[in-house]
Specification:
By secondary structure, this protein is of the alpha+beta class. It contains one helix and six strands.
């Protein structure tokens, strides 16, 4: 579920002319956290993810809601709240 939602959010970031690399922090209500970076994939379309650090929740997975902050290479910030497996809020500052 999280992978599908992240794909949609990353597509939206690119549509909004945000510039990779994107740094992201992901935090769920049950304590799962992840910090990473998305960079342009070498020689192909798409983005590669590099995990920088993470902690798992006691349940071992991210619980809803999930809060995400993205920062692009020019300092634009996007806030995302994943509410359900098919619904998210997106705000670009």
């Amino acid at each position: 579920m999280l992978d599908q939602q992240l794909s949609l959010v990353l597509k939206r970031l690119l549509e909004e002319n945000c510039k990779p690399p994107f740094y992201c922090t992901i935090v769920s209500k049950n304590g799962g956290m992840m910090f990473g970076r998305y960079t342009l994939a070498d020689g192909e379309e798409g983005l590669d993810f590099e995990l920088i650090n993470q902690t798992s929740s006691p349940e071992g997975m991210f619980g809803l809601p999930i809060y995400i902050m993205f920062i692009d290479s020019e300092g634009q910030v996007a806030h995302v709240k994943i509410k359900t497996s098919e619904l998210f809020d997106f705000k670009l500052n």
